[in-house]
Automatic annotation (TrEMBL):
Name this polypeptide is given: Heptaprenylglyceryl phosphate synthase
Keywords: Lipid biosynthesis, Lipid metabolism, Magnesium, Metal-binding, Phospholipid biosynthesis, Phospholipid metabolism, Transferase
Lipoprotein in keyword set: no
Lipid metabolism recorded as keyword: yes
One annotated GO molecular function: transferase activity
Organism the protein comes from: Cytobacillus spartinae
Amino acid sequence: MYDVREWRHVFKLDPSKPISDEDLERICESGTDAVIIGGTDGVTLEKVLDLMARVRRYTVPCVLEVSNIDSVTPGFDLFFIPTVLNSTSTKWITGLHHEAIKEYGAIMNWDEILVQGYCILNDECKAAKQTDAIANLTEDDIVAYAMMAEKMFHLPIFYLEYSGRYGDPQVVASVKDALQHTKLFYGGGIQTIEQAKEMAAFADVIVVGNSIYDDIDKALKTVEIKQ
Ligand SMILES: CC(C)=CCC/C(C)=C/CC/C(C)=C/CC/C(C)=C/CC/C(C)=C/CC/C(C)=C/CC/C(C)=C/COP(=O)(O)OP(=O)(O)O
Ligand SMILES: O=P(O)(O)OC[C@@H](O)CO
Ligand SMILES: [Mg+2]
């Protein structure tokens, strides 16, 4: 199912972290709507190819979330391109994208590419540091970014990113209220089914990442929000 508009739950696998065949099978056969391959640092073509080939043993949709141009490869069902709306550097909003499209634009299949408007809200996470994001935002600031994503830029996805830290459900609720068409992804710190349910009450799609590596049994239980 490649229609992200129907998704509720995804796992995000980090190519720079090892995962056993057994754990990978449990993730891919869990009933999640998709597996996203992506990370902030240490993402190389070799690691992406290896993980893609391993996920491809299963029928679950497989998405590459592009974090650097050198690790992009054909073979995914979809490509997600982040643009960090609250970055202070044009590099992470349109800069790298301009370079990439100058080089590859003519051969890109736009039907398989979705742009994600990121709003990074954990000032200590790697992605916030790398992109010089202003993560210390009020609810009004965040809602304004969500409205920009939908009303100004018509982005298909707005991503509330708390990577590594459980976020504020009130913020997620307010952002959801501001969106009509753009799908709301929430990611960050989901470790338990209770947290998954709390965020899935507002977000269209919840993203579970690090807990795969910390406590896979608990991570797998989060898929139950789909029931
Ligand atoms: C050949 C072929 C098939 C081509 C396909 C066409 C295609 C898709 C081309 C690419 C075109 C394009 C426009 C590319 C953009 C290039 C680019 C580098 C954009 C910048 C992306 C960006 C803003 C990255 C910043 C970091 C970020 C937001 C990463 C997202 C992932 C994330 C936050 C992960 C969480 O971090 P993690 O690593 O897990 O952290 P911890 O270890 O602390 O958990
Ligand atoms: O790793 P966690 O904290 O689960 O966050 C998931 C995802 O939003 C990271 O990009
Ligand atoms: Mg991670």
